[in-house]
Amino acid sequence: MTRRIPTGWLLPAALLSSLFLAACGGERQAPADGDPAAAIKVNTPAQIAQESAENYDDNLNGLITGKTLKRWKDNWEQERPAGITGKLVIFQQAQGVAGKRFIKPDNDNVFTYREAEWRESRSNGVIEIEGIVLSGAKVDQLLRRYAIDPRKDLIVCAQGVGGGSNAMNMGRCWYTFRYWGVDSRHLAILDGGNDYLSGAWTAADFSDSASPVINRALASVKDLPADNTALQATFVDLINVLPVVDQNVRNDGVFLWDGRSLDQYSAGESSEAGTPLADYTKSFQNGGSRQGHPRGGVQLNWTNLMINGGTGGLFKPKAELRNYLQGGTDAAGKGFVDGSYQLLGAGNAYQAGDTVYLWCETAARAAVANLVSAVILGLPTRLYDGSMIEWNSLTATVDKDGNPLLPADSPWRTDELSFFKLNQPGNIASRTSEGVLPRIRDAYAASADAIIKADKAYKQPATGGSGGSDGGSGGGGGGVVLPPNPCGG
Fold first, then answer.
1. 119 strand-pairing partners
2. What is the pTM of this model?
3. Is the dihedral of CA 24, 26, 31, 33 positive or negative?
4. CA distances (Å), 279 to each of 260, 275, 301, in order?
5. 190-244: per-residue pLDDT in tens?
6. 305-332: b or e for each residue (b if 16 or more CB lie within 10 Å)?
7. DSSP designation for 37
8. pLDDT per residue over 433-452, tens digit each?
9. CB-based contact 474:451 (threshold 8 Å)
């Protein structure tokens, strides 16, 4: 598999791999006397991305096939990829169909779990969102629960039953681990649900039971010498790259991808069928105040990225996915469209050097598109984690009880930066009486990157990380090296 090798490390890789936390308790290992602690490298989106082989069977990380996974699980000690010295840990997002509930573990070298909780409620200082990337403490709890050492083990995010929410959660699984610094060589996603796995899979390859919980702390995300927070884009990051008109601009260095359906992108003015909705409010989700898209965004529904719209959970061949990003269309005539609801056309979509910004309603569907962009095609990619549920809440209107969502003089309004249609007042969820998220926390906050700053600080609490400015919350600037804090506290 083709990989981008980060540059700019202060220490040789061989030395870095031997460094552990000193005197930090639990069962995490300490460094040898005299060894300096690892420094943290802040990676750019280009450095975080990795590119798949044309034949997915050839991948040893990123997108792997059932053929590869079967070879691994049948003889892990002999078949594991070079550089992997620990276990194979498989996270299914759901149980498979009867007779294929779990990919069979041996509970010695190969472990399989069901785990689909990849979100938590977090506030960026302005607004609290229900489903944002897990905090460092939550990921460390997960590493402890399943006794994972991501410096040694290979983690595979699988679907169980292919497609739909399981494909989305698989994308969130990859996003969570990669965001928190897991090396791409230690992280994979599995193409297809359990009943669509390629290769000589039989009933003997499955189990009705998952592996037992171990609950042993072997490592922390603080041990991983990479800051990949640039993988996440805040709403301010998105604001800072929007064009001044609602048009696809080809020479601005960004590609703004809306992974929702066309009816949501267009606020009902068009649809996947090519016709307007009789009631445009049918495109609204989550009691949102408005529907539409940020200026300059272009649309391609995530279902186009998978075979048969996602049934079975298999991704389309790389060449077909590349064709979409080049502005081409598939056999059904589907391709990227702009705010005029017309196809972009060949050569008018992604441009070499662009950074892809991705969103949907809640960053679930976009998490699948994120896998295509960042893992299969290897493009610099940032997932707008708040997505449209956040974006459409940052508006100067009122909920169904007459309570204002955001004051008209708030500096964080996004309605002025969007094409949109307002929801009917009676349809807008009450963020106050119903306790619905997202909820405005501070309409006049000094910055909106509290999550990124907190996550950087969790990795390097002695310095508070390298939190960016109000709009620079992505942690870009590859080559920045932060001083170490071996015990993380």
1. 133
2. 0.88
3. positive
4. 18, 12, 20
5. 999 999 999 999 999 999 999 999 999 999 999 999 999 999 999 999 999 999 9
6. bbbeebebbbbbebeebbbbbbbbbeee
7. P
8. 667 789 999 999 999 999 99
9. no
